[in-house]
TrEMBL record:
Organism in which the protein naturally occurs: Thomasclavelia ramosa DSM 1402
UniProt signal peptide: 1-20
Main location group: other
Localization of this protein: Cell envelope
Listed name of the protein: Carbohydrate ABC transporter, carbohydrate-binding protein
Pfam families xref list: SBP_bac_1
Keywords, sorted A to Z: Signal, Transport
GO cellular component, one term: cell envelope
Coiled-coil parts of chain: none
């Protein structure tokens, strides 16, 4: 499942003195309070980076990572007392705390961080971050060009499959949707479904990539701004029609298991050769590391097929964020920590200790070459393959709508909402593609002011 995080911990070293990046001294004791969600990548990366920052900067850092951090932080944010200086909890995460903070203007602007130098390096933050990561509605939620959330880790999202099965069958991985349908017929003849999905929540990344393919990057931005005219275009509807056809090739038990309790059963279909493709992010192999699998199984990963041979292939990027609450007491120190987060030193620690990759131009190179499998044997780290997806011709796109005031009774974008949640009904045949599409248009109109 999308990285759900666990366990609380508090780290601290002796407090020191602070003046600048050089770790100078003053008479004041400084404490940086960081709170966040903990789980998918474990705790070791954060521990190592915090420890390094404390040593360099001569400050005390209190790190608190919890499984239910949204519940823990909500009353703190509401009261404005003892608010953390930095929060690690992604937009759209369970509990909706971040989305509420954005709506309430409770997050500080950090545009100036982009022009600051990366801690200990002679390069500006904006030049170290991979292009595009600071230009999404997840980082600039108000569409005003100002940065409020800093991109933290990133995970390419696409279609996972058993590369070993394709080798055994002599099948070619499809590069266009027409080839996808041809493969679907071949697989059906052998009792294998073409497609499955963990839950409808995974269609945020899937549908974002698909819309970029059908309408193009510029029009996609308009879609994320709730532009009704763009949503009503034939190119936009094409994406709905592709999902509708894909529904016809979806494994029969997918909808029944597409929930938080049974989603791994759908993911298991890929390992058992009962379905060919499953949308997910780079965390999937770790999540299924202990699961049984067919003989010769080998993870494969691809961007979405192109709409036409001349078109573009897209892979959405699922990115997490860190940000400074507007009521934080140590905002300047928090900004300094963010610049350290983008350093090669910190990126290396995060990659080696937790296996997560920062959205910098060098971070993916620090992933370990070897990892241990479920039996303790050393194997090649397949994550390096996943992060090469953009080197192999796929274009990157981000996920997320512009921040707008909520409308009572309208749920457009949650996992159960009109845009993504209705996929279950399309797969079962309870709703047609036209009914789904028209419901989305009606919802968009309410936001298009």
């Amino acid at each position: 499942m999308k990285k759900i995080l666990s366990t609380a911990l508090v780290l601290s070293l002796a407090a020191g003195m602070l003046t600048g990046c050089g770790g100078g001294k003053s008479d004041d004791t400084n404490t940086l309070k960081i709170s966040g969600l903990n789980g998918g990548y474990g705790t070791k990366g954060w521990e190592a980076v915090v420890k390094a920052f404390e040593k360099k900067e001569g400050v005390k850092v209190e790190l608190n990572l919890e499984k239910n951090i949204a519940e823990t932080l909500r009353p703190v944010i509401t009261s404005g007392k003892d608010v953390p200086d930095l929060i690690y909890l992604s937009v759209g995460s369970e509990g909706g705390l971040v989305d509420t903070m954005i709506s309430d203007k409770a997050i500080a602007e950090i545009s100036d961080v982009l022009d600051m130098k990366v801690y200990g390096e002679d390069v500006k933050v904006k030049d170290k971050i991979i292009p595009g990561f600071t230009n999404s509605f997840a980082t600039k939620p108000y569409g005003d060009g100002k940065l409020y959330l800093a991109p933290f880790t990133y995970d390419p999202c696409g279609l996972f499959y058993n590369a070993g099965l394709f080798e055994q069958k002599g099948w070619t991985v499809p590069t266009t949707w027409d080839e996808m349908w041809e493969l679907g017929e071949k697989a059906k003849a052998e009792g294998i479904a073409l497609f499955t999905y963990p839950t409808t929540g995974y269609f945020d990344a899937f549908f974002s990539a698909l819309l970029n393919e059908t309408v193009g990057a510029d029009a996609y931005t308009k879609l994320m701004e709730y532009d009704t005219k763009t949503w009503q275009s034939a190119e936009t509807k094409k994406a709905f029609e592709i999902v509708g056809k894909l529904a016809q090739y979806t494994e029969a038990n997918t909808v029944a298991n597409a929930n938080k309790d049974n989603f791994t059963k759908n993911q298991q279909l890929i390992l058992d050769n009962k379905a060919l493709f499953c949308p997910n992010g780079t965390w999937l192999p770790d999540e299924m590391s202990e699961a049984p699998r067919a003989e010769g199984f080998k993870w494969g990963f691809m961007a979405l097929p192109k709409v036409s041979a001349e078109g573009d292939s897209y892979s959405s990027t699922f990115s997490e964020q860190v940000y400074i609450p507007s009521k934080a007491k140590n905002a300047d120190l928090a900004k300094k920590f963010i610049t350290f987060m983008y350093s090669d030193e910190a990126a290396k620690l995060f990659a080696e200790e937790s296996g997560c990759v920062l959205p910098t131009t060098t971070a993916s190179s620090y992933l370990p070459e070897k990892v241990k499998d479920k039996d303790g044997n050393e194997i090649d780290n397949q994550k390096t393959l996943f992060y090469q997806i953009y080197d192999n011709g796929a274009k990157s796109c981000t996920v997320g709508f512009k921040s707008v005031d909520a409308i009572e009774g309208v749920d457009l974008t949650s996992a159960e909402g009109i845009l993504y949640g209705t996929v279950n009904s399309v797969v079962t045949g309870d709703k047609t593609v036209d009914e789904w599409y028209n419901a989305v248009i009606d919802a968009v109109k309410k936001y298009d002011k």
